[in-house]
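Spend some time on this chain, tokens included, and walk me through the fold:

. . .
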Amino acid sequence: MKRPDKGAPERSSGRRDFLKLAAISGPVAAAAVASGGASAEAAEPDLSSDKMQDTAHTRAYLDSARF
């Protein structure tokens, strides 16, 4: 008896999609790095105080931690 041909298994299409994505993501990442972009400068911390620094990210954290 001959087995019926079921075609490619479902897993192979997932593997194929992953390989396509992996092949595309390398050049895209290289182009993003090569394009430069705006660089941000770090703010100088106020070391004269022993308290927590009042910055935008500490305010955002405190706002998100409120109940």
User: Anything to note?
Assistant: The first helix runs from residue 10 to 34. The chain has two helices and no strands.
